[in-house]
Amino acid sequence: MALKEREQKYRSVEDLPGVGPATAERLRDLGFTTVESIATATISELMAAGLSEKKAYELIALARESIELTWVTAKDLAELRTGLGRITTGSKALDALMGGGVETQSITEFYGEFGSGKSQICHQLAVNVQLPVSRGGLEGSALYIDTENTFRTERIIAMAKHLGLPPELVAERIIYAEAYTSDHQMLLLEKADKVIKENNVRLIIVDSLTAHFRSEYLGRQLLPERQQKLNKHLHRLIRLARAFNAAAVVTNQVMAKPDDFFNQSAVFPVGGHIVGHTSHTRILVRKVAGKRNRIARLVSSPYLPEGEAVFAITEDGIVDVEGED
Ligand code: ADP
Ligand code: MG
Which residues sit opposite 296 in a β-bridge? Predict the structure, then answer.
């Protein structure tokens, strides 16, 4: 049975057996507003709402059963995978590099230097997710968490016009929040499931994932805490992407590696291994000097070979470069 055909047994947290209004209220206060959020919670998270260990366990089991987050056969898996959606980037070459666009139920990370085009890609995806499936969209809306205050509605309007979409409607379907600190950023995601569900959000953007973490956790002794928090944040993101069949897109800065004698241009993404292991598709974006062209390099993917694609950033948004496919 495909995911989309599955009937959900319990629609709201109150529908779950044994959850009275008071418990529902305490769960809501902790950000557990939907059955999906209970299904993907840990026992200790629910115990924080005053539930006993046994009760927390039962509740998670009921919620999981309800949304069928359970073991599947390989055959089911194939069908589940057909429920995967993809969002076009606007460039056929870049889409092809990723196997047909940015995919749902996993995290795609764009990393690169300042000005390489990461935020422009995010803007474009927030518009494109709204396109009909036949044009490479998912007919959904976008959730946009901005940590660097670089989101511009003007860019959305220009991109929407270029695609022949009604600009105001498109702007209305991008739900935006600026995150002021890393804790605020984490809280925004923790409280996101209601807004995702109510607005048919199919794309969750965190631009940039690491900027706050990087500036707040300075020095070696803070590194373990930073990594632990980033890890938690990313796991929250992947849970949301899976529960709502949404694409998760994050951006990441790069740090130069000055001690790499053999490769002076070597750069590596902030966050190290933890970010690397959790984000499923990683793409390095580079600027070509003096041109609007960009080179995207698929650095890691669960099933695609490494490769490169050239695209361009124009006033109209992300496009293919003439003469290249
Ligand atoms: P990053 O997020 O990687 O730091 P951005 O996504 O903000 O980088 O990319 C900024 C670049 O995008 C600019 O240097 C410019 O090349 C291009 N760009 C931004 N806005 C426009 C526009 N309106 N028309 C053409 N190119 C643009
Ligand atoms: Mg940016």
Answer: 285, 309
Helix (H) or strand (E) holding 234: helix 223-243
Cα 71 to averaged position of ligand 2 atoms, centre (Å): 39
Q: Is 313 in the pocket of ligand 1 (CB under 6 A)?
A: yes
- Identify the residue whose C-alpha is closest to ligand 1 atom 20: 315
Residue 45 Cα to ligand 2 midpoint, Å, equals 33
Is 112 a pocket residue for ligand 1 (Cβ < 6 Å)? yes
Q: How far apart are CA 285 and CA 19, in angstroms?
A: 48
CATH architecture of 1-79: Orthogonal Bundle (1.10)
Please tell me the residue having the least CA distance from ligand 1 atom 14.
115
Predicted model pTM: 0.77
- Interval 47-73: pLDDT, tens: 988 899 999 999 999 988 877 555 667
pLDDT at 259 over 90: no
Q: Are 308 and 297 in contact (CB under 8 A)?
A: yes
Q: For the domain made up of 84-320, give the CATH fold.
A: Rossmann fold (3.40.50)
CB contact at 8 A, 86 and 129: no
d(CA 109, CA 281): 6
Q: Is 291 in the pocket of ligand 1 (CB under 6 A)?
A: no
Q: Where are the domains of the chain?
A: 1-79, 84-320
